[in-house]
Design a protein that fits this description.
Layout: E1 3-10, E2 15-22, E3 31-39, H1 42-48, E4 59-60, E5 65-72, E6 90-93, H2 104-109, E7 120-121, E8 133-136, E9 142-144, H3 151-155, H4 160-171, E10 179-183, H5 187-197, E11 203-208, H6 211-219, E12 224-227, H7 233-243, E13 249-254, H8 260-268, E14 269-277, H9 291-296, E15 300-303, H10 309-322, E16 334-337, H11 341-349, E17 356-359
Parallel strand pairs: 10-11, 10-13, 11-12, 13-14, 14-15, 16-17
Antiparallel strand pairs: 1-2, 3-5, 3-8, 3-17, 4-7, 5-6, 6-9
Helix pairs in contact: 1-11, 4-5, 4-10
């Protein structure tokens, strides 16, 4: 039986180790894939430092993956969208949004699953991305990748684009002539910028840093950008008011992942504005909130954690359609072998990388 290397993380000790394990035959309705590239998500950095307390023992993680089908179960004939699957096909999968298909959210609300199926124990074969071979059960959303799309184009906005798509569905359509402000120029912020830029918005304003990411934001559809390193919250509010004739933004999308963005974002909203939170995934810090302001200005606030499997499919279709219009693949700036997964995650945490990926087939540098 073949074996493969995989990363295992223990939340108690905060240790990331690399283990060799057997790769079994695919489960009923599932498949085994050889991973070619795994994207690094900002939430992985929160996990490494212990901000995310969602496990008790060693787990496998990495929820943005592309690979080659190595073996199919006899009953696995198609991907989740009905496209035929064969050995040798390229596929992308989204283990972080694996549904149980039994809970109230899955069956009735058609929302992200209530039962925590992620991360998964590293003691069993699984679909995590930081490994050489992934074992996908029939529950894992998997989709065939079009031949025209490059691996890195799929993971460049890995879970960020499905997150942005899900958020837009929750907050509602951007109406003609509205102003959208996006807080944060990481992958989620840039994905939201693309979606807003393609909408009927009059202007899309991106707040973030560093300057290189703001330049990407302009290529992705931002009509204006504001650098947080050279402005204060007061400066940014004045700039938004000036751009909106004193009204403020019709929609603000938080993708910064820092709690201070929430208080600032509320203050940027116009009357009847909508506020979508997509980046405040972990942490214990809080900020004071004035409920009178929310009530009297008719402000609507939406949370946005997780995405349904169909959002992953929509994201793949988006990349396939718009890959030549937007330089999506150019977001990937740093590449690491599997044995340097920790370094890959840290490169995202410290801001050195726009987007890092792990390539299991890449030889470690000397």
């Amino acid at each position: 039986m073949r074996t493969g290397l995989h990363a295992s993380f223990d939340i108690r000790s905060k240790k990331l180790t690399y283990l060799e394990s057997e790769v079994p035959a695919p489960p009923e309705g599932g498949l085994v894939a050889r991973i070619t590239v795994a994207g690094v998500c900002g939430s992985d950095a929160h996990r490494l430092v212990g901000d995310v307390q969602d496990s008790t023992g060693p787990v496998s993680f990495g929820h943005e993956a592309v690979g080659i089908v190595e073996e199919l179960s006899e009953t696995t004939l198609t991907d989740w969208a009905g496209a035929p699957l064969r050995v040798g096909d390229r596929v992308a999968w989204f283990p972080g949004s694996t549904p149980c298909l039994r809970c109230y959210s899955c069956r009735v609300l058609r929302e992200p699953c209530e039962n925590k199926l992620w991360p998964v124990s590293s003691d069993v074969p699984n679909a995590a991305g930081y490994r050489e071979f992934a074992t996908l059960s029939a529950q894992v959303p998997v989709f065939r990748v079009a031949e025209s799309v490059l691996d890195e184009e799929v993971v460049a906005l890995g879970c960020a684009l499905p997150t942005a798509i899900s958020g837009m569905e929750r907050v509602g359509a951007i109406e003609t002539g509205q102003t959208v402000v996006i807080q944060g120029s990481g992958p989620v912020g840039l994905a939201a910028t693309m979606l807003a830029g393609l909408s009927a918005a009059r202007q899309v304003i991106l707040i973030g840093a560093p300057a290189a990411r703001l330049e990407i934001g302009r290529q992705f559809g931002a009509s204006s950008t504001i650098d947080i390193t050279t402005t204060t919250p007061e400066d940014r509010r004045e700039a938004i008011l000036e751009l909106t004739n004193g009204r403020g933004a019709d929609m603000v999308i938080e993708a910064a992942g820092h709690v201070s963005a929430f208080e600032e974002g509320l203050d940027l909203l116009a009357r009847n504005g909508r506020y979508l939170l997509s980046g405040l995934y972990s942490g214990t810090k809080t900020v004071p909130v004035n409920p009178v302001l929310i009530n009297n200005r008719n402000i609507r606030i939406f949370g946005n954690l997780g995405s349904r499997p169909n959002a992953g499919y929509q994201a793949l279709k988006f990349v396939t359609k718009h890959r030549e219009r937007f330089p999506i693949g150019q977001l990937v700036t740093h590449r690491f072998p599997l044995s340097q997964t920790r370094e890959a995650i840290e490169s995202m945490a410290n801001g050195k990388a726009n987007k890092s990926v792990v390539l299991p087939g890449l030889e470690p540098s000397a």
